[in-house]
## 1
Amino acid sequence: MPKTILVTGGPGFGGHNVVIIGTGYVGLTTGVCLASLGHKVICVDKDKTKIEKLNKGIIPIFEPGLGELLKDHRNRISFTQDLRGTVQGGSVVFIAVGTPSLKDGNIDLTYLKKAVAEIAKAMRGYIIIVNKSTVPIGTGEWARKEIARYFKGEFSIVSNPEFLREGTAIKDFLEPDRVVLGLEKQEDGSFDPRPKEIMLDIYSSVAAPKLLTDIKSAELIKYASNAFLATKISFINEMANICDRTGGDVKEIAKGIGGDKRIGPQFLNAGLGYGGSCFPKDVDGLISIAKNFGYELEILKAVNKVNKRQRVNFANSIKKVLKKIKGETVCIWGLSFKPNTDDIREAPAMEIIKALQKAGYKIQVYDPIAMENAKKDLPKIKIKFCESAKEAAKGADVLALVTEWPEFSEIDMSEIIKVVRNPIIIDGRNLFEPQEMRKIGFEYYGIGKQ
């Protein structure tokens, strides 16, 4: 039996009783989307306030379209704090709890371990435990041993890594490039047919290839995917740094190499690097996993180093310009780590703002969605949270574009130049066209772009 199998659909058994443990980005999106596919879903979370909001149809996170999808399929999804009673009524239990990074880069499995133990204690019959959380290799094996301590009957373990991007999570779930299913094997080397058929049926309405593989490979695929994409980002940023020194144009470089089908154009946008809850954590996690197995991932160490350096370089560029013109006020456009999310975890803006605050500069910030989250994170030192992009630009000596929200590309910059103190743009995402900005009257600096 081959180690990895690619299939295109499931047997079509119909809807299943599905339990989702955790209602964060992954758990909530998974639950709502599975309900939209016709399954009966119950989402479990210990956060009483969150459950109360969800039962009222209030989405506690910002994810475009999720609230509308929940409303459309409210009859097939419910929310509760009762894990024990819920597990006993489910046929498939998805674990989608947080697995944050520890200071040393290893993965904190505290929430997952608690979930597994509680599921095991609640089990009364056969169920499939599906891990959607990003976990180190070998977690599936550990889960089987842990559950067997409490439950002596039959059960199955499946690894089903998620590839959801904040801002496009619904599309990523319902229209993915692939669905990865890590399955346990029988003595003859074939995949256990019971979880295989049920999991294929759960995803039978999803028109994407289903990759059937062993659990350890599935656990590693998630890390490998994100680490590879992070590597592409850091690579093009290195090219941008060379362009800054040679006069080349990194956008032309990206077109030239992205046109090669072996490389592709995705994730070749030079800028301030990657952020969010996945790429930084997964790169660190894979480095730590490899180290735990006696191997040093030198490429990913360099990827990390380049990514962190991009933020430092950008902050230094702002300080250099301010020192030259004897300016003191910086406008920051964009706080979230990318557009269409309110997530500021590992967001470049947070690090850049804190560096400028430490240097004593005044900061004026604006983001369409992430303002409230940023207020909780940023020191209240010489910072003004503004109601609009124009207000943030008023009186600024430097306008720094940090997150490429569509709103910023639609702004009439001929109006913005009237309110800034000094017409200087430092574009951290190469959102604007240099010649257009210079024609309006701005002094323009991009990333690897003259």
## 2
Amino acid sequence: MNEDHQVGTPVYQIKVQGILDEKWSAWFSGMAIAYETDSDGASLTTLTGVVIDQARLRGILDGMWNLNLTVVSVKRIKSEKDSSHL
């Protein structure tokens, strides 16, 4: 995750079914890509990163739609910098 973002800038975690190659990171606004397996043994790709506004989030989700990816979850998470100012 990029640690030089401004305090209060939202960080999102988006999970999709299957394995998404890391080359797609740049296409999805430089989000970090990680892999996991759900409780049923299915592969998931987790994209995590700063999303500066709702228009950017919409663009990322539209890109996933265009690639016919199945979105499992979209979650706004707090960065360490955000939580230190609560």
